[in-house]
């Protein structure tokens, strides 16, 4: 594929749009193709298109740039369509977290698990399925890649409700090869300053799996020697530093401590430490005895608003010339999604962590479960690599999370209040039937404008 067309839906994304421009311009496999940038906000669409053209001109490449507020205008001929949009995410995540806290449910992210994850599924899924319908009609051979949260629920929905499409889902928390070097350093296999070579990598048997944001290291061996205890000791040392560091914010301060405590319980290491503590019930503040780790700090909507404002100020400064485009080239780097697309376009084979159907990778979890797994990727897409069994305890936690995702998807697809109630009462953070019923009604009313009318 010499001239791939990549369509980014939600090009004003805080986490992806600018990185996509950078890699599409700098990659020899991609910069002879087309980058189509779609954002439903006309001003943002225009700004991202202008930025992309400035970067293309600076680099002197032949990458064609398209922009639109309507995806149907640019889907024709697409090879890859990336979903990175969100429906007024800061506003609604703030509502999710505030209303849930009223009922004693504390969410530090509120975008994938808990009532926040369920209601974000209700808000985002209709647009994701509408996008899938347009892809089926206009560019049915394209790969549809979900890069929006809740990654697990939306990726599962594409597999269940658009089964003829080629699709998978992504999160950048386990970007390769950085994730393997990070744990190799913690295991004492290499130092931070040393190169992580292919020779070292071949000797490092690292096995990670689970739902997105709730993945677990279930094996780590180097040359046949168990190095998980060494990695756990690295987590413990990091926890001590975070607790004593006055510059570490409250959300981050106890993430490694929670990770280490979970390792002590289950004998497996959580690998998405910023999120995992939200998936278990232990730090909801419901215990009668004091804990060494305090209850979760609620998600900070104001901090996220500031990050968005800073991003748009940066884009404006690049477009106005206040900041040179050379600074853009030095500031950004490749991204997990475009790394994978580059690999698929080239036809080379590499390994990445991807959210897809289990298909036997974890042999004591069902094939149809939607998991974040190490996959071998080439032009034909991802294929999960077998890693063995999830340990008892961890498997139970994983299965409950997977059930809650499946029920949230079913509720969002059907607008069935009975299924929504079941999803809420399956979720690991919900502990009261009466509170769950009240919270559902309050969130439905508070978020009415963002939800299908069939709910009312």
What features would you highlight for this structure?
47% helix; alpha/beta; 456 residues; 7-stranded antiparallel sheet; globular; 6-stranded parallel sheet
Query: Given the structure, what is the number of helices?
Result: 17
- Name the CATH superfamily assignment of the domain at 5-88 and 113-173 and 308-348: AglA-like glucosidase
Q: What pattern of helices and strands is seen along the backbone?
A: EHEHEEHHEHEHHEEEHHHEHHHHEEEHHH
Pick out the low-confidence regions. Answer: none
Helix content: 40-55%
* Sheet having the most strands: 7 strands, antiparallel
CATH architecture of the domain at 5-88 and 113-173 and 308-348: Alpha-Beta Complex
Number of strands: 13
Mean pLDDT: 96
Radius of gyration: 22 Å
Q: What fraction of the residues are assigned to beta strands by DSSP? A: 5-15%
**Amino-to-carboxy terminus distance:** 47 Å
- C-alpha geometry: globular
Q: What class would the helix/strand composition place it in?
A: alpha/beta
Per CATH, what is the topology of the domain at 5-88 and 113-173 and 308-348?
A: LDH C-terminal domain-like
CATH class of the domain at 5-88 and 113-173 and 308-348: Alpha Beta
């Amino acid at each position: 594929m010499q001239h791939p067309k990549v369509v980014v839906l939600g090009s004003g994304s805080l986490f992806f749009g600018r990185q996509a421009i950078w890699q599409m311009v700098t990659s020899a496999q991609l910069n002879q193709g087309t980058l189509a940038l779609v954002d439903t906000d006309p001003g943002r669409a225009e700004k991202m298109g202008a930025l992309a053209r400035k970067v293309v001109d600076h680099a002197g490449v032949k990458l064609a740039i398209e922009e639109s507020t309507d995806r149907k205008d640019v889907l024709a001929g697409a090879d890859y369509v990336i979903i990175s949009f969100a429906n007024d995410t800061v506003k609604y995540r703030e509502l999710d977290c505030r209303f849930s806290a009223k009922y004693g449910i504390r969410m530090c992210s509120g975008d994938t698990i808990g009532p926040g994850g369920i209601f974000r599924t209700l808000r985002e899924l209709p647009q994701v399925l509408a996008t899938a319908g347009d892809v089926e009609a206009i560019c049915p051979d394209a790969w549809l890649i979900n890069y929006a949260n809740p990654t697990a629920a939306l990726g599962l929905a594409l597999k269940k409700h658009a089964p003829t499409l080629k699709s998978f889902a992504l999160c950048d928390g386990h970007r390769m090869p950085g994730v393997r070097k990070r744990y190799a350093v913690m295991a004492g296999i290499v130092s931070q300053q040393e190169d992580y070579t292919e020779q070292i990598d071949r000797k490092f048997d690292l096995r990670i799996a689970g739902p997105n944001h709730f993945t677990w290291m279930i094996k780590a061996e180097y040359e046949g020697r168990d190095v998980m205890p060494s990695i756990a000791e690295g987590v413990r040392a990091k926890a001590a530093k975070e607790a004593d560091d006055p510059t570490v914010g409250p959300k981050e301060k106890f993430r490694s401590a929670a990770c280490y405590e979970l390792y002590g319980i289950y004998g497996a290491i959580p690998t998405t430490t910023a999120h995992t503590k939200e998936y278990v019930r232990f730090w909801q503040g419901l215990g009668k005895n004091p804990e060494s780790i305090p209850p979760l700090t609620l998600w900070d909507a104001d901090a996220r608003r500031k990050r968005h404002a800073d991003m748009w100020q940066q884009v404006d400064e690049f477009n106005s010339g206040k900041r040179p485009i050379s600074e853009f080239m030095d500031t950004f780097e490749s991204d997990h999604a475009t790394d994978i697309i580059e690999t698929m376009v080239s036809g080379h084979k590499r390994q990445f962590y991807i959210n897809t159907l289990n298909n036997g990778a974890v042999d004591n979890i069902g094939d149809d479960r939607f998991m974040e797994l190490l996959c071998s990727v080439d032009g034909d897409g991802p294929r999960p690599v077998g890693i063995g069994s999830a340990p008892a305890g961890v498997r139970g936690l994983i299965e409950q999370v997977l059930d809650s995702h499946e029920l949230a998807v079913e509720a969002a697809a059907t607008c069935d209040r009975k299924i929504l109630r079941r999803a809420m009462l399956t979720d690991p953070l919900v502990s009261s039937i009466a509170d769950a019923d009240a919270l559902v009604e309050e969130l439905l009313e508070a978020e009415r404008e963002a939800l299908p009318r069939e709910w009312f």
